[in-house]
Queue: 3 jobs
Job 1
Amino acid sequence: MRVLEISNIIMPAMSRAMGQPATDFGGWIYSSFDEMRALDDISFAFATVYPGNEFIVKEIDNVKYYLLPLCGKPISRYYRHLEDIWLRVKNDFQPDVVNIHGSEYPHGLAWVRSCGNKGVLVSIQGIVSEIEKCYKLEESPHFLTTFRDIVRRDSIKQSRNEFARMAEKEKELFQSVRHVAGRTDWDYSHVKKLNPDLEYHYCGETMRRSFYKHKWNYANCQPHSIFVSQSYYPIKGLHKLLQALPEVLRHYPDTQVFVAGTDETSKPWWRITGYGKYLRRLIKRYLLEHVVAFTGLLSEKQMLARYLDSNIFLCCSSVENSSNSIGEAQLLGMPILASEVGGNPQIMKGHEDCLYPFADINALSEKICGLFAKTDLERMPVKYNLDRYSSQSNLKTQIGIYRAIANEGQSGESNGE
């Protein structure tokens, strides 16, 4: 069986071969591949787009890698030149199964338009049409537009319009294929609305390896500290936490918030985004300059350490399907608070008291203070249902899905389809 994996990232092995640093994003993809590559009867290839101008093919350790050029153009747009390149990839590798990881970007649709839907599986990550609905702030987007937003044409309002365009391509993708893989009732209901005839396959996600080897311990963490894993976009909801912090600080004045990623609030006027401007305004308004710290981009090892050092992990998003950050925090057994949106209630089943309405900053501050107030007897590692993260179970399920789709294709050929 020959499996082509189409993703939005360059795999680490290919990055290293090109002399570039490997990405720490998309860990679930290469974690799953690490489990599958030991199987002798499956050949793998990986393909993605990149900013360059040349079509690159390279084989590393018996795995083929294809980089399709965007020629400096944004990944969010559809480009017809990719259709011809996908045909070259198809003829070269001749896959039995094509797994498109994520429906957000349209280069996967270019495969389907060019090569057809035979053997194609779309693995759901986010749902762009739902992201577009939530991509907004309470404040006027015009008031927040910055010089950088005007030059790059991606203000909050323009970004939302871009998501709306992407959602049209996503809709076409889901209506063009026969198989999808997902993880929550939430993603099931949304893709079934777009295409009731889809065959939906459930498959959990395997997290990065190091998160299976450690457990959170209150004695080793910084009390009254909160970790947020993303903040670049409004949908990640950091602004809601900032609005909730004054009440938390009234009860716990030593509270510290650590935010993974670059500090968008400290950039000069010609580089700051509208959302960065909004966050900076809130930080100044509520005197949070010494409360909120941005960690910069973190490696897997650094990310693990940041989780273990924190008292609470907070997912404050306005929309989520199944947050990998929640998954990693659950594997570690640390206290988690999550907004009651998307797939979060299902992921947090059994811990519903740790959910809160996204827009309710009073509920959020109350939940944070409640976790901070836990007694020593309640500060043991938290027990979550970790079945969805079982690497062996996920491997068996994913390979089973691949074989079923490959056999369907072979059956169609034998029947003259």
Job 2
Amino acid sequence: MPANDSPAYLSRGLEGPLQEALEDTPVVCLLGARQTGKSTLAVQFEQDRPYFTLDDDDVLELALSDPRGFIAELPEKVTIDEIQRAPELTRAIKRSVDANRDPGRFLLTGSANLLQLPRLADSLAGRMECLYLQPFTEAEKQGTTGNFLRSWLGGEVGLDLQPSSPLQPSGLPRRITEGGFPGSFQRPSSRGRRWQKQYVQAVIERDIHDIAQVKDGRDVSRLLTYLSHQNASLLNISNIAGALGHTRATIERYLVLLERLFLIRRLPAWHRNDSKRLVKTPKLHFTDSGLATSLADLGPENWTEKRQVFGHALEGFVLQQLHAQAGWMEEDIQFSHYRDKDQVEVDIVLSHGSDIWGVEIKASTSPGRTDPKGLLRLADQVGSAFRSGIVLYDGDSILPLHQDPQILAVPIHKLWDL
């Protein structure tokens, strides 16, 4: 387990799943964007485990020149950082693991999604478990347990009326624009935004060439900036291609690259085969709200006059918290969104087996009477499979929103205070 006596180390919700994986799987890979803390977690978790990073040019050269020899000379248990930089190593790791399948032998980290890189994923099929390290959640940043999702899905979130208090300025703008990268949230606001923009450029200029042939990284950079103004919106590849002067095929290729680098994610539409009135287009989300707002030139000071744009950023921010918390649970939670031909929407739909939950997200300080409209439509669609629906808002009390006790208004801060 990690040594938490270092004041610089922030505990991660993924520590438990990582421990379990290392106890029964030969190869465990921590995947996630650069600077999310993969290397720190790997080093802190087992401090006596030898560590090699492929960001070191000498180590990389040795690994590329003789992959089998490199792996053969390593200790029995080892950490290899940034494995996507030397995909040739995976075949050598496979050979080593086939000869000795003891659990926890290789702890790998990767800043590109190995499961979307066939030559890496195929080599280690059946021998490797991948864990996804998201940017820091608000719970991780302030050292709380982050049990909201587990509690809510378990039916443990109920009415909680808090005393009235003087209205205070919202803390959400700061949290949204900080995002979950330490390079941002550990700096003052203006410095953090500068770091975010430089981070994006560094990833595009350096890492994208590890996983694909891209003639001009500036095209990808322009696309990412354009997408920051489309955050949490339905993905229309034709419109994007027209706006940027590229073909649909080129835009699709670039989107896949940005997904592989964990900068964006597509949120699929929830639908059933017999639901002809449902929109089946995915939504596009940035994996970090800070990167999205920085690229869109949004700061906390814009919270009031650009509330609609910030509403999209808030939606991505909440998805970011829930996605991370789902990764800490044993259950396989699937995420999607709901939209029908009447343009009735639910921002986030969660499913596990046949069970369905819905989340609506509002920036207001009090819930409105029409806020649960989408949740009620979703409940009608799924019938007895509907478990609960919540409207997250910027207030303090957990309130009833409908005669159906499964529909509640819940303060957004419960995402990190539970």
Job 3
Amino acid sequence: MADAAFGFNTPFDAQIAYLRAKLALPTERWGEIAAAAHDRAFVVAGAAKADLVADLQAAMVQRATDGLGLEAFRRDFRDIVAKHGWTGWTGEGSAEGEAWRTRVIYKTNMATSYAAGRRQQMLEPGYVRLRPFWRYLHSDTVMHPREHHLAWHGLTLHHDHPFFKTHFAPNGIGCECRIVAVSRREGEASARAGLGEPPEGWDKIDPKTGAPVGIGKGFDHAPGAASGWPLQRFVDDKLLALDAPIGAAMWRELRPVLAAERLQQWQAMVADTASAMRAGGATVQVHTVAPETVQALAGRGVALENAGVWMRDTELLHAIRDTKTERGSALPVEVWRELPRLLEAAEPYLDTRDEALIYAIDLGERWGKLVVRVNRNMKGRFNGVRANLVSNFVQTGGLVEPSNIAEGSQYVRLAQKKG
């Protein structure tokens, strides 16, 4: 019956498109990525293998398409678990546990994807002209209403009110609240009835969840609002917040999903910089230090603050200019364009004289040499926001003879696992 409340068993093109467009993201815990990142990533808590997550996503898309409901998804779930040998998942070992877990996965994904589809429709210009106000509705079928959700029932605000950036239902696991669009006349009538302003303290943050009071952890965003954002943006933020060993391990896990997006983001900056021949402070994450390299650096007394490797368009512009004036020693533009891919296969070294991380790229007779300054506090524009960040930054690059790096005592080769 709850399915009917959300229209779960009726194919809905916008909902299906939202589910299908997500990237299957392996992760140990559902909360490992920012709440809004769930618009771009399909995750299931504890599912740490990409092919496992991809099969679960495909099952969810299929059930949204054919409308066969929860029991059909439960059969899918059992088949997928058996196929991949997935063990240790929460709820495993009992019929009740499996029923609870499959219900949470199914209901949460169906509710949020349906909400994302409805929100997309409600923001279409023609629809906004007819129904510019949104109303919060609490489901009267819920046996144990949540106090805050019940208090928001009937609240009617203009569609661009900040309330709906964090309180667009569903607002927690099992939440059956919904948002509907209403006319200006209905919105004004609600205001006269005392339902035109959110209650005092609506945006107060609960320290236990990091979300506004009454909102479940990870639900403090409007479903679909971040669908156009690159997932790499969320991963960049996460890598900055994580200790280097953890961030390095996370990237290795996510690389099959995100490598193409990282390359695309980087190549866009290369193209913009080469075309304009000026720098505006744009900064892109071009690499993540491998776990073995992080460990090897720490063993030599160089503890990275985090595992990210960035490059600003300021330094990139100097490098591109060098290709025009110093043809004998400058890295070709095509090497800079493919830098994220090339760095994955590069050999890492420690420059013992000034504690720089060096990457050697085999280009045939000569090597490309990238100098990365570690733990630097640099100013730049990160994902459009100007800030100072402490991380690792590519400073220069050039062509050298292999003997320049491989021989002598200045450069010490660091272990790095390939693949």
